[in-house]
Design a protein that fits this description.
The chain has 13 helices and 4 strands. By secondary structure, it is mainly α. Bound molecules: iron/sulfur cluster (SF4) (2 copies). One iron/sulfur cluster binds next to helix 11 and helix 12.
Length: 253
């Protein structure tokens, strides 16, 4: 059966759009950070309040059933912070035990949230704007300083561990999306994924060099294994490949 393929497009146009989306996401941090912050979610849970962050993560989980970690590649401000700084990050995060830490962080985070709701006597309210002032997250110099320190930490982790090191190692949201993708892979319904034709590959390794997650994309193409937990479906590899060996595809497993 012929698989549906994406139409040919300018290499740079899609990546330009992606990079601009990441820049905008980064610039909007003063507005959006409380809707994304795992800490604000825990603070709300301690008062029995379902915050905007919980609603967002439920949405991201359901989206991951169809588009895996597309959020990380195209919209996440934490990812944006690391990718904007990637020109000074020369090394990549190696496969291994460190990539498993995020699942432990996710499990701990979910347990703390559940326990906090339990301690608060259950859910008392839903407040998407919890913690914000007129919908704005950074409403004082103190909050600004805390956010700057947190994002400096995220950048430092990536700087010392490798490109998008925080996404690889510590992000609890990554684990939620990986779980969504695993569920989809069990049932095999149509979803966005990478498709590769090894016969077209000339082993130039441009795809591996461009991958913001530092994956060995050339090796993935050669092995015919394009499904990776740490792939954020950014399409940089597809848009870099001079032979069109990699494409986005919407298909069954
Ligand atoms: S393998 Fe391709 S789509 Fe996945 S993260 Fe790397 S460059 Fe992006
Ligand atoms: S960029 Fe394309 S041709 Fe080059 S190694 Fe990757 S898949 Fe092969």
């Amino acid at each position: 059966m012929t698989e549906p393929q994406e139409p040919q497009r300018s290499v740079s146009s899609r990546q330009n759009i992606r990079k601009w989306l990441l820049v905008i996401s980064f610039l909007l941090i003063p507005v959006t950070i409380f809707y994304i912050s795992p800490v604000i979610i825990m603070m709300g849970a301690a008062e029995g309040i379902v915050t905007g962050g919980i609603l967002l993560f439920i949405l991201i989980f359901f989206l991951s059933l169809f588009v895996a970690r597309l959020w990380c590649g195209w919209l996440c401000p934490m990812g944006a912070c690391q990718e904007i700084g990637s020109p000074v990050m020369k090394h990549t995060v190696a496969d291994g035990w460190r990539n498993w830490i995020k699942y432990g962080v996710m499990a701990l985070w979910i347990i703390v949230i559940a326990y906090s709701f339990y301690g608060a006597g259950g859910i008392h309210a839903v407040d998407p704007f919890y913690g914000t002032v007129n919908g704005i997250s950074i409403s004082s110099l103190d909050i600004l300083m805390i956010v700057v320190i947190i994002f400096s930490g995220i950048f430092a982790i990536a700087y010392f561990t490798g490109r998008r090191g925080f996404c690889h190692i510590l992000c609890p949201q990554a684990g939620i999306m990986v779980a969504g993708r695993k569920i989809r892979n069990i049932f095999g319904w149509p979803a966005l994924q990478l498709n590769a034709d090894a016969a077209l590959c000339i082993d130039c390794k441009k795809c591996s060099k461009e991958c913001p997650m530092g994956l060995d994309v050339n090796g993935m193409v050669r092995k015919g294994e394009m499904e990776k937990a740490d792939c954020i479906l950014c399409a940089s590899c597809a848009d870099t490949c001079p032979k069109g060996a990699i494409t986005y595809a919407w298909r069954n497993k």
